[in-house]
Amino acid sequence: MNCPFCRNEESRVIDSRPVDEGTSIRRRRECTKCGSRFSTQETSVLSIIKRSGVAEPFSREKVINGVRKACQNRPVSEDDLALLAQQVEETLRATGQAEIEAQEVGMAILSPLRELDEVAYLRYASVYRNFSSLEDFEGEIALLRAIPSEKTSATKNQVSSPQLK
Ligand SMILES: [Zn+2]
After folding, report:
1. How far is the CA of 39 from the centre of ligand 1 (A)?
2. What is the pLDDT of residues 39-72, one digit of tens each?
3. Digit-coded pLDDT (tens) for 92-116
4. What is the pTM of this model?
5. Separation of 31 CA from ligand 1 center, angstroms?
6. How far is the C-alpha of 143 from the C-alpha of 139, rounded, in Å?
7. Strand partners, 99
8. Residue 15 C-alpha to ligand 1 middle, in angstroms?
9. Which DSSP string corresponds to 40-56?
10. 30 C-alpha to center of ligand 1: Å?
């Protein structure tokens, strides 16, 4: 990155520290030419590819906004939503892919949302998966009953659970 003062291309890192729970790193730099100091922040890029083909950076805020409506009047706190968004990001980063389709983000939301609140999950799933009839709800509820919530076990692999396909 060029020095913002003299545009010199070289700088020396004088300090590095993780920020945002380790998802970013902030570096304090010193220009080798003019000696000015400046900071850079690096985040490994997680791009979400929308249906239109447009890429945009992953945003926890967008995940939260996407599920907030489904959680209306349910016992779900802002902390719960923040944790859910964090789980979604971890799930997506664990795939090792730098580019992720928007569809997969929706999938990654379903599993932790179900753990959080089954009613909110059903609301979200009905919109996200385009339920068009009572039968769709009945089928989903039957699956919810057939496959007990896995609150106590690892949730890592639930994204690929058969009920989500
Ligand atoms: Zn400089």
Report:
1. 12
2. 999 877 789 999 899 999 999 999 999 999 999 9
3. 988 888 899 998 998 899 999 999 9
4. 0.65
5. 5
6. 6
7. 47
8. 17
9. EEEE---EEE-TTS-EE
10. 8
